[in-house]
Design a protein that fits this description.
- This protein is mainly alpha-helical.
- It folds into two domains: 78 residues, no CATH class; 130 residues, Nucleotidyltransferase, domain 5.
- It is 47% helix and 10% strand.
- The protein has a two-stranded antiparallel ribbon. A two-stranded parallel ribbon has the order 3-4.
- β1 and β2 form a beta hairpin.
- The two termini are 31 Å apart.
């Protein structure tokens, strides 16, 4: 059913400053987008307009506004716990994921690639963007060894994240498959995220045009 258009209630000066701070400094880009959506809604941007700006469906934007109405300043702050996910997505829909509460640095990244390399059953080509961690000396020093084991890397052109297919998956998880209620607590988020990740390829599916 189509969500009726809605707007947030007028913000107090304190709320507006808090949202601007979140939009400016929060390390979670999804949280920054939600804060910006709330600010724009107060200025009169309709759900359709916000959905176009953030490239998501209007029902997801509506959920963001509902979350604000229910929880106000309880939007996660820059100091809240975070979950970081690294994943290997196959065009046939199969998916391998690794979840961490720590940042994904070169050491963590190499550990995941080593593990995936050991468990893969046939040669694989991994497509990567040019994130700094993918270009670190430690990571690059392992590329030849992985290649000898049948794991090959292909780096996308710079500044082209939109052609990285796994970005489609991340958007689906963040904006459609994870319920807004998952963000009420870190425990709830962790459980909901793990449930979604386990369901990728079965309950949660992507389709790619060939």
């Amino acid at each position: 059913m189509r969500t009726a258009t809605k707007f947030v209630a007028p913000l107090t000066d304190e709320e507006r400053l808090r949202l601007k701070e979140i939009h400016k400094i929060d390390p979670n880009w999804r949280t920054r987008m939600r804060a910006q959506a709330i600010l724009l809604s107060e200025k009169g941007f309709a759900l359709n307009q916000l959905a176009t700006i953030f490239e998501i469906d209007r029902d997801s934007v509506s959920q963001w506004l509902d979350w604000w109405a229910d929880y106000k300043l309880e939007i996660p702050s820059a100091h809240s716990q975070r979950l970081n996910v690294l994943g290997f997505l196959n065009l046939n829909g199969s998916f391998e994921s690794y979840v961490f509460e720590c940042p994904i640095d070169s050491e963590v990244l190499i550990m995941c690639f080593d593990d995936y390399c050991q468990r893969m059953k046939k040669p694989a080509l991994i497509v990567l963007d040019n994130a700094p961690v993918h270009k670190s000396a430690a990571f690059e020093s392992r590329i030849e060894s992985w290649g000898e084991q049948g794991l090959y890397l292909l780096f996308l052109p710079p500044y082209c994240p939109e052609i990285n297919l796994i970005e489609v998956l991340w958007r689906k998880i963040k904006y459609e498959w994870l319920p807004v209620s998952a963000y009420q607590s870190f425990k709830g988020l962790s459980e909901a995220l793990n449930e979604v990740l386990r369901g990728v390829g079965s309950k949660y599916r992507l389709s790619f045009a060939h």
